[in-house]
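Newbie here. six chains, one complex. Structure please?
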Amino acid sequence: MNESEIIHNALEEDLGASWKDVSVEALGSVGDNSSTSKVIVKEAGIVCGLWLIDEVIKKVMMVCGKGEFSHLFSVECYFSDGEFVEPGSVIAEIDCPVGIILSAERTILNFLQRLSGIATLTKKFVVAVSHTKCKILDTRKTAPGLRCLDKLATKFGGALNHRFGLYDMVMLKDNHIKAMDGNIKKAVEQTRMIVGPTKKIEVETSTFEEVKAAVGSGADMVMLDNMSIELMKKCVAWVKGRVPLEASGGINLENAGKVADTGVDYISVGEITHSPKALDISLKIVS
Amino acid sequence: MNESEIIHNALEEDLGASWKDVSVEALGSVGDNSSTSKVIVKEAGIVCGLWLIDEVIKKVMMVCGKGEFSHLFSVECYFSDGEFVEPGSVIAEIDCPVGIILSAERTILNFLQRLSGIATLTKKFVVAVSHTKCKILDTRKTAPGLRCLDKLATKFGGALNHRFGLYDMVMLKDNHIKAMDGNIKKAVEQTRMIVGPTKKIEVETSTFEEVKAAVGSGADMVMLDNMSIELMKKCVAWVKGRVPLEASGGINLENAGKVADTGVDYISVGEITHSPKALDISLKIVS
Amino acid sequence: MNESEIIHNALEEDLGASWKDVSVEALGSVGDNSSTSKVIVKEAGIVCGLWLIDEVIKKVMMVCGKGEFSHLFSVECYFSDGEFVEPGSVIAEIDCPVGIILSAERTILNFLQRLSGIATLTKKFVVAVSHTKCKILDTRKTAPGLRCLDKLATKFGGALNHRFGLYDMVMLKDNHIKAMDGNIKKAVEQTRMIVGPTKKIEVETSTFEEVKAAVGSGADMVMLDNMSIELMKKCVAWVKGRVPLEASGGINLENAGKVADTGVDYISVGEITHSPKALDISLKIVS
Amino acid sequence: MNESEIIHNALEEDLGASWKDVSVEALGSVGDNSSTSKVIVKEAGIVCGLWLIDEVIKKVMMVCGKGEFSHLFSVECYFSDGEFVEPGSVIAEIDCPVGIILSAERTILNFLQRLSGIATLTKKFVVAVSHTKCKILDTRKTAPGLRCLDKLATKFGGALNHRFGLYDMVMLKDNHIKAMDGNIKKAVEQTRMIVGPTKKIEVETSTFEEVKAAVGSGADMVMLDNMSIELMKKCVAWVKGRVPLEASGGINLENAGKVADTGVDYISVGEITHSPKALDISLKIVS
Amino acid sequence: MNESEIIHNALEEDLGASWKDVSVEALGSVGDNSSTSKVIVKEAGIVCGLWLIDEVIKKVMMVCGKGEFSHLFSVECYFSDGEFVEPGSVIAEIDCPVGIILSAERTILNFLQRLSGIATLTKKFVVAVSHTKCKILDTRKTAPGLRCLDKLATKFGGALNHRFGLYDMVMLKDNHIKAMDGNIKKAVEQTRMIVGPTKKIEVETSTFEEVKAAVGSGADMVMLDNMSIELMKKCVAWVKGRVPLEASGGINLENAGKVADTGVDYISVGEITHSPKALDISLKIVS
Amino acid sequence: MNESEIIHNALEEDLGASWKDVSVEALGSVGDNSSTSKVIVKEAGIVCGLWLIDEVIKKVMMVCGKGEFSHLFSVECYFSDGEFVEPGSVIAEIDCPVGIILSAERTILNFLQRLSGIATLTKKFVVAVSHTKCKILDTRKTAPGLRCLDKLATKFGGALNHRFGLYDMVMLKDNHIKAMDGNIKKAVEQTRMIVGPTKKIEVETSTFEEVKAAVGSGADMVMLDNMSIELMKKCVAWVKGRVPLEASGGINLENAGKVADTGVDYISVGEITHSPKALDISLKIVS
């Protein structure tokens, strides 16, 4: 699903199979009157999703057969995606037929609040490791159907994207390696022969021996899964930058800095997409 | 979107446009071997989403052209959706070709963790008001594209569903009423004439006067929006059960019990769907 | 399906899998010449569907790759949907490339004739009960795939909409109640606990006892199914307006007035959507 | 759209965006109990659409996640599509979980009633011309989105199908010919060069001269549009069977026999698909 | 599938489930800069597909959310589809944001190269029979999913289209006839009764006796399948133009002229769509 | 699009918007009789696509409502995909209702012929370089909409897959690098910062200097575009295996061996997917 399909589905589940807002229907022709609304962030955070306001409203106008009122529609954003905002900030102003904004309001806010929540939490992790050269990575622990938006939000929060799915990178976990006779080197070589030269291969490890085997196997990246701080340090020292190392498993805002201090290149964090707190944002029709 | 489409989309974003898992591809024919996995809940909570395990795996088998291996597939669930589980509980056991479970694992867990997180948080609110006859309602503040599942999860957590979208109930907010000349009674009557007799009409109020007007208007339900405890008590006393009252706005686990003590019939809570913490659940291939 | 999808499907079945009109293809570049057409109603009735002319032609221009000829396209409507027209009335005039109007003609007329036929028949029922305060309701007996349009047409004919589907209102028929132990009160209460407070519950009754039970059960609306005029009068007298009453079953243009005289609030009529006679409308290319 | 998509759309508009029947939901697990229903035709007619019963119910079971109850499901039909039935006939018996039949009932009946209505009306026209060798043809005046089913119904009523859409046969009407300089012979030849040898070309005529020109042009079929009985007779006599003749325009049950007496090969009738009266059919759950 | 859907699918398989070009992403905002590109044909041939350039780029701009850069976009074509071009010819010039043309380039060329390859090969067959009145027909041996474009390309190469699919013409092969008791006349008559008068019926024959039977059966067209030159001549002489004859089977550029010399009306060639050599075309960003 | 959607689209374009085969319709109930067919390869080559036979026929049975005849259906394959076959080999035998195989035949053959043609041509390139350790790679020059199948076929022919699309690997061509100030090292570093660590970055080069810059930039792979044999040798000697080298541009069966002799790791060939000759395969109903 691309953005356009995600928005379509979000609106369809709100407007129903026949795409109608019965409350707006009650307004009759008054729903076509112009209106001005402000989008207000009520707590400090990183704002994300502003570009979607325009797309949501355009799609509502289209499916509600209000294309002829497009001259009443404009959006002005006062912040950029990824920017920090203080509580009370007006981040956007929307001119729009009143019936349209009433129908679009909840969908716009559902997007903005989730994505800003992700960006805000991501930024906290980025700050927690900013005294090192370690980067934060996201994971595939995203809300089903929202992966491409969730991963845009982590980027606006300052993280880098890990693989998008099972299709664009190989990750050999213990179960994969076990299924290929348990030999890491053989597993990586077999993989390369099958997937060709254009996909990166990462190997998941949990012991020093596995790390040594993985580095020697020709893997492009090695994941240190649920290791102690000491073990990670030992691995970093031995690997000496020959291959990027990713720490993973049980990392939270409290221990992220210490994990970064071990010298790993990347820390991947599931929490930023599976448990973000929605940023408090509201929409107020002011005239 | 129905469940089947939601699962399809979740798998498509993980498997990509050509539906392939390059890590499983590397396994070759070994991926067709049988395997047994356990789904383990690692923290206390209400489990929700178990019925989706079967559907996700069946769809993966189908899209990966592994239908002929269906004799290797079975799921046994040891708990029911909505049940409380202790940390460490094995909630399900899955027999399945190893390549299939590796491709399906993350999608299964993304569903289970979100839905169980919603059910668990909902249950906390339900418990917080359980000394009264007040019921918890969900809202439309759901993850875009997941409304029907999010609302199933709140139900398994003990809440009742508020409207599903803009199509199945009328909610007249201040902006609707303002647009209809500000007269609540007139607005409700006009609405009834337009939407017919089969849709309920709820009116949002923030003052005692508005509550009185709403009750007198023929509305089917009245929302008390962001009112103080005292004001809510006053409204409850005046309304005397003639119409159901719903408290809304700024209600959290700390104040929910007190709000319920005012005698309102319902409390609606956005947090249970917009900011649930994922329940920690993992899948372990045991053989 | 929303309107846009309904139009898409109607055009696809006419233009085929590859979207081509072989008769227009034969015209070659002449098909791009401008033309003017008149839409003429040939018998008296209520016109409905005028807004679709614009949408059908735009979609044909788009799928036929004729977007660059949009400057040749305009529609002027001389009547509004829901208005009464005399035989011979020109209801719209269309300027359009001649190839486009030839491809769009039948689809436009199929919509206009069905919807105007529904509105016209509906209006006859509305007139038949207009000496009372009784309102006409439509039903779910619509042409498969056309529900949202069919129900718009009944509205333009002066009726109110009954529920749109199985999702936006509860209707407990004898079979539902039987399945819940035959106790109406218990059935309504169990329903309320499951579907929450936002959906209306209607109970179907066929005897005086059932009506009494239904009114006492907390149902929001009661259907009097296939009752005699006398029984309906008795029910109306006993209910005294505590809950809206809907007469249903075997009601036609001849007896509708008498049914309305019983004092019921609503009469629902399947015939207006399952057996409308198409209004005779044609399109004439005049230059 | 094929049959499967038409059924999907019909169910989606009835079950809504999240595919739920709130009345059946109220039944809880009782909805999974077995039941037996009879489908009863209440007036004489030609039955059509019986094969859809099975498909509708299977799709409901699938989308409602009730696949595991398929052992409770069977349909037995006591008549064949196209057969004449007396009032009161039980045409099918359905065993099915009670919740499923309650959700599927209206959709099944909407299909059966429309298609049987079409077949019944078609048969009347077929009978009206049965003393001649003239055949009844349908037209493209079908309900938008239902063409393939409507045209199956006319066949079961004894008619032959005219073209399915604009893609599978050329029809040159006066406007097409005018656009190609008004010369019928030239128009037909130009058309043949463009559409190739595999599509039939029919020419619409309204005067004797046009018929002569059309027959001489190499057209595969000639339509006599809105001609008088006398003119049709003259044309038939002159054409002498060199090319099939189709009478069209303003033909109803009263004059169809006389039109057939002129010796035309085919009569096309829009009424059978644009204005059929639904056959009265009901479904009764008997246990 | 219509053209728009074909383009959508082609872009989706190139841009992936989330519609992203990671190479263009690396450009950052530089990707929005204007650019000019030339489309250059590197070998002599018939160009085909030019109209798709505009559609591909517009769709890329839309799905990549770059609609606001549409003022940077224009296409100028220096040749028409179906025209012969010399090696080195610039056939089109494209102004476009550089990121968009980089994302669209391969898809544009994949279309242009295949369609021009088809048109070029078709033209060779057309030339090979141009000393006769025989016409070249295409077949259903097209690339799956590309039939409507492949058949447009054969037309631009000078061929006529055979049937588009199994739906718009009847072709009775030996297996059909065998299944209908082996009697050609009976088979054609039965077919006519079932499919109605609007579809052409072609009969496949391989012996002189079959040709005689087919011509006498009322078939609209007769295929001479894999016959020798002598046998075809004999058939042509006997048929005397009463029905069009199509030669088919094993016809290549070397023998096409001789087959045409037999006097058959049409020659159908699978090779032009199942084995065209892509025309060498490239795109060069010049500024 | 996954395989299932590709097959659906291929069948839809052949069976049309209403999914009907008018020739099979003419058979009436005879079409449901059993039949046995042989799939015969008529020239030597690598067979590919056998697994699709089953899927195509199952889908035809489903869309034609012939599921109840599934007991008449089975496929036996006598070769495996990727195997070499001699002319005249029977590669599969199909038992199936005769109407179904008649409707499915052309679609099955269109798939088999294209994919086997690709595999056969690929194998020739693989053989041409088999005296070296060089591997053949495919490209994105595939038939629009068929990429995933075309790339499966090259694999069965012995090649490895290059990137699937623009989403799973970065390829920096001269235009990308120019747009990033022309500095290869800077371009690669900027790219890594934006796309994260999980995607490979390949740099296209055409001079020795560019190769040196690319190797020093941290690129994962370097493409030698349209270089002379001598220059490629020089590059191979200098790079000394630090990074994989891919030769590309103007490589055909005649020069592929010599290019491989230069010591490059990979040769990518567009011809194997943009201009394969269909392998001659036919289907014969034998009883």
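Moderator note: Residues 98-128 of chain F form the longest helix (31 residues). The mean pLDDT of chain F is 96. Thread marked as resolved.
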